[in-house]
Amino acid sequence: MAIRVGIVGLGMAVTPHAKSLLDLKDRVEVAYAFSPSAARREKFASQFKFKLCDRLETILADRSVGAVLILTPPSTHLDLTEQCAVAGKHVLLEKPLEISTARAERMVEVFSKKKLKLGIVLQHRFRPAAEKLHEILPSLGRIVSASAMVPNWRPQSYYDQPGRGTKARDGGGVLLTQAIHLLDLMLALAGPASSVTAFCRTSPLRAIDTEDIASAAVQFANGAVGVVDATTAAYPGYTERLELAGTLGSAVLEGERLTLQVKGAPVEIINGSTSGGGGADPMAFSHEPHRRLIEDFVDAVREGREPMVSGRSALAVHALIDAMLESSAAGRPVAVEPTE
Predict the structure, then answer these.
(1) How does pLDDT run across 271-298, given as a tens digit for each residue?
(2) In Å, how far are 23, 40, 121, 123 from 86, measured between CA atoms?
């Protein structure tokens, strides 16, 4: 029997979710799609033939709705997820969890106490090349270096939407909004970070109160070191890159293209797209990782287990980003708070 879900938020982020839900129509039934904006409901309806509603209460009051996909700005997440928890709904939440780690932790605890599932849309973990890298990770030996580069470009039109790029609405800049995906994957592969020394700045390109340039040296709990280099000022936008070096070999992930080099073995290349939202169109990527993430979330609800990207597991990348911003402001190394 298909699980019935409601969609809350019909802005830019909704398209890959809607396409994924159509792919999963035998397992997931969209009961309602909601936005308080009539214009957004109308635009969404021109692309997708899901039932619309103009009140959140319609979704919350329908006992047949088992889960809610929340795709709204970060500053709204705590309030919306708490309303869903009170109504007994599982939630799949667009990243980040919230605009501050304190609010994110509060959210995670609410769902834990209610024994409800909270999944986070950090879909990079579901890219085929990333899954392959996770599978062969032991063949690289002990990881000694892990680095992430996110050379994105966003034009002024991207920041013209009211509140975008501000602490009040988004909670942060390039780290919390763009780089969070690759940083989450880096931590999932290399393990938690223990300390950082960072420099975060706002370029003269735009008038925002968050960082659009961020660089850091990172030390990991297992002794590995690496760097983070993230920006939305790299015109016209380039492919993000994750590099892992181990005692037995190395791996380079460029977008969805993976190159493996293990000592004594031939080079192995898993081909995939090297584009993916790094340029002026942030939605220029395949929805397949979203589909796989939603499928895992639905299975988690059915099986009574935690989703692969749970709210609690996503706290690690928030802790890393917090430490980077604190280090930059203080001008010194900062310890990364453990989240387990």
Answers:
(1) 876 555 565 566 567 899 999 999 999 9
(2) 30, 27, 22, 27
Domain range for 39: 3-121
Strand 334-335 vs strand 268-270: parallel, antiparallel, or unpaired? unpaired
- Residue 175 is classified by DSSP as I
Q: The dihedral of CA 138, 243, 294, 323: what is its sign?
A: positive
Give me the amino acid identity at 123. Q
> 237: pLDDT confidence band, cut at 50, 70 and 90?
very high
Local structure of residue 51 (DSSP, 8 states): P
pLDDT, tens digit, 9 for 90 and up, residues 90-141: 999 999 999 999 999 999 999 999 999 999 999 999 999 999 999 999 999 9
**pLDDT, mean of residues 236-264:** 96
Output the pTM of the full model. 0.94
Give 179-194 pLDDT, tens digit per residue: 999 999 999 999 999 9
- Asked if residue 142 is part of any domain, the answer here is yes
Q: Are residues 184 and 51 in the same domain?
A: no
173 vs 117: CA distance, rounded Å: 28
Report the CATH number that the domain containing residue 24 is assigned in CATH: 3.40.50.720
Question: Residue 284's pLDDT is what?
Answer: 61
Domain count, the chain: 2
Alpha helices per DSSP H over the chain: 14-23, 38-45, 56-61, 77-86, 101-114, 128-136, 156-159, 174, 180-190, 288-303, 311-330
> Can you spell out the DSSP letters for 233-273?
BSTT----EEEEEESSEEEEEETTEEEEEETTS--EEE---
